[in-house]
Amino acid sequence: MTTLVVLFCKDGQDYHNKVHTFLTDNKFQATPKDPTNKYQKQITQTIKLCNLTFNKEQIKHLTQRNPKPPTQRAQLKLRKAGNPIRPVINNRNAPSYKAAKNLNRILQQYLSLDNHYTIVNSSTLAQDLTKLSINKKHRLITLDIKDLYVNIPITETIDIATT
After folding, report:
1. Does the global pTM surpass 0.70?
2. Which of 49, 85, 127, 130 is deepest in the core (most CB within 10 A)?
3. Range of 20's domain?
4. How far is Cα 58 from Cα 46, in angstroms, rounded to an integer?
5. SS3 letters for the chain?
6. How far apart are CA 64 and CA 99, in angstroms?
7. β-strand partners of 43
8. How far apart are the C-alpha atoms of 94 and 146, rounded to whole Å?
C-alpha cells in the first residue's frame, strides 16, 4: 500500500490532476486493508530462518520498529512537454527497507559486478559520448524504465499484493 503525499505548487489543482491521472492511467488501486504488519511478520520470520547469515543482535536491527507503508510523492518533469510527473517512492519506513539494505551490502562484498554502463548524470553522459568512435553501423538508442516492465501481469500482481 502506498500513501500519496500531494505537494502544492503554483497551480495546485493542475498538479493534483496530473497525479490523479498518473494513478488512474497506471491502474493503481486502494487495498481494503493495510498489509504492512503482515509483511513485517513475514520478513521477521524469514530473517530468523537465516541464522547462519545473521546473529540475534543483527536480526533485532534488521526489523523496523514502527513499519509504515511506503509513501509516494510526485515531481514535475519541467523539461518535458505538458510537465508530466515522476513518482518518487520513500521506502525508509517500509518493513523490508533495513533487511534489503543489509542484504545489498552483503551481496556487494561477495559479488564483483562492474557497472560499465551506469551514467551518473547528463554531463557525464555527454563527456562519455564525445569520447566514442561511432561509425555508420552503430546506433544510439535510449530506453525508458517503463518499457522494462511491460510483461508484468498487472491483475496477478495486484492479487498477490492484496492477499
Report:
1. no
2. 85
3. 3-162
4. 13
5. CCEECCCCCCCHHHHHHHHHHHHHHCCCCCCCCCCHHHHHHHHHHHHHHCCCCCCHHHHHHHCCCCCCCCEEEEEECCCCCCCCEEEEEECCCCCCHHHHHHHHHHHHHHCCCCCCCCCCCHHHHHHHHHCCCCCCCCCCCCCCHHHHHCCCCHHHHHHHHHC
6. 9
7. none
8. 23
Taking residue 100's Cβ as centre, other Cβ atoms within 10 Å add up to 14
pLDDT digits (tens, 9 = 90+) for 76-102: 888 888 888 888 889 999 999 998 998
- Spans in the chain with pLDDT lower than 70: 1-12, 113, 115, 141-152, 161, 163
Cβ atoms of 95 and 36 within 8 Å: the answer is: yes
Q: Please give the pLDDT value at position 68.
A: 93
